[in-house]
C-alpha cells in the first residue's frame, strides 16, 4: 500500500497570521483515516514494544502518569521514518515559522493510557538548547480525541510570556503557570480534535492536557521541527545539557545544528 504524506497542505495567509498571534493553530484534515490507520498501527506497535515504563500507573510521578513516551521512532526505519520525514507536516511547519527550511529536532510518541493523569502546564523549549524561538511541534492524534481523552489545550498568545520558562513538567509548573496565565487573562483553548486534525505550537507557547478518563488509550505522534539554520546555544539547565547530548550529538555551541540526527526535512524552492 502506498499513501502519499508528501502533498502540500494549502495554508491561508490568515492562518499563518493566526498562528503568530496565538502561538498555535489547529488544522483540519491534515491526514485522512486511511493514512492515520496505516502509519498509526506501526507507531502504536513501536510505542508499546519500545516503552520501558513498568511501574504501575498509581505509583508513578505526575510526569510519568501523563503519558508513555518513546523518542525518535524514525530511527527504527520503515513506516515510522517515512511518517516523520513526510513533507506535508514539515512544509506546514516551515510555512508557519516563516523560514526557508526546517530540520528535525526529534520525534516522540505520546501514549496516554486509560486512567492516565494530566499533562501539567509547560513550555517545550525549556528542554531545548536552541538559540531562537523558531521551533514548532506538530501534535498528530492517531484517532479522534474527545474531551474525556485529554486533548492538548493551549494558552492563546502566551508565547511571549517569560514567567514559567524555567519550569519543567511538574506539579509546580501546573500550579504556577496556570495561575500566571489566569492572572494575565490568557484564553484557554481546550477543545476536542477531530480525526485528521493536527495542532502546531511554538516552543514557548504554554500548553497542558487533561486526564484520559476514557477506556481507550490516547495515541499521539509528535514531530518537533526547528529552523534549518538553528544554532546550538550553551545549555541553561541540566535538561538542555541532556538534550544536547541525546538529540544533537556532535553539534557545537554557536554553530548550526547539522548532525545526522537532525536532517533537513523541508526546504522552500529558490
Automatic annotation (TrEMBL):
It comes from the Bacteria. GO terms for molecular function: dioxygenase activity. Pfam families: PhyH (PF05721). Keywords: Dioxygenase, Oxidoreductase. InterPro entries: Phytyl_CoA_dOase-like. Coiled coil: none annotated. This is Phytanoyl-CoA dioxygenase family protein. It comes from Luteimonas galliterrae.
Amino acid at each position: 500500500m502506498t499513501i502519499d504524506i508528501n502533498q502540500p497542505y494549502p495554508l491561508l495567509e490568515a492562518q499563518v497570521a493566526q498562528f503568530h498571534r496565538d502561538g498555535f493553530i489547529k488544522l483540519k484534515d491534515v491526514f485522512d483515516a486511511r493514512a492515520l490507520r496505516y502509519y498509526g498501527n506501526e507507531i502504536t506497535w513501536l510505542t508499546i514494544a519500545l516503552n520501558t515504563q513498568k511501574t504501575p500507573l498509581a505509583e508513578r510521578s505526575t510526569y510519568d502518569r501523563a503519558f508513555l513516551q518513546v523518542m525518535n521512532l524514525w530511527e527504527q526505519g520503515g513506516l515510522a521514518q517515512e511518517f516523520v520525514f513526510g513533507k506535508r507536516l514539515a512544509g506546514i511547519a516551515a510555512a508557519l515559522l516563516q523560514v526557508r527550511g526546517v530540520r528535525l529536532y526529534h520525534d516522540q510518541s505520546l501514549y496516554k493510557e486509560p486512567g492516565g493523569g494530566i499533562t501539567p502546564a509547560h513550555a517545550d523549549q525549556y528542554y531545548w538548547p536552541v538559540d531562537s524561538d523558531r521551533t514548532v511541534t506538530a501534535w498528530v492524534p492517531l484517532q479522534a480525541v474527545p474531551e474525556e481523552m485529554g486533548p492538548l489545550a493551549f494558552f492563546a498568545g502566551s508565547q511571549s510570556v517569560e514567567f514559567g520558562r524555567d519550569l519543567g513538567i511538574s506539579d509546580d509548573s501546573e500550579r504556577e503557570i496556570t495561575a500566571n496565565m489566569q492572572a494575565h487573562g490568557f484564553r484557554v483553548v481546550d477543545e476536542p480534535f477531530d480525526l485528521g486534525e493536527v495542532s502546531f505550537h511554538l516552543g514557548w507557547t504554554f500548553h497542558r492536557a487533561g486526564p484520559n478518563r476514557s477506556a481507550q488509550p490516547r495515541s499521539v505522534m509528535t514531530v518537533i521541527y526547528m529552523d534549518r539554520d538553528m544554532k546550538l546555544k550553551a545549555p541553561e539547565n541540566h535538561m538542555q545539557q541532556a538534550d544536547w547530548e541525546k538529540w544533537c550529538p556532535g553539534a557545537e555551541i554557536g554553530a548550526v545544528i547539522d548532525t545526522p540526527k537532525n536532517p533537513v526535512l523541508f526546504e522552500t524552492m529558490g
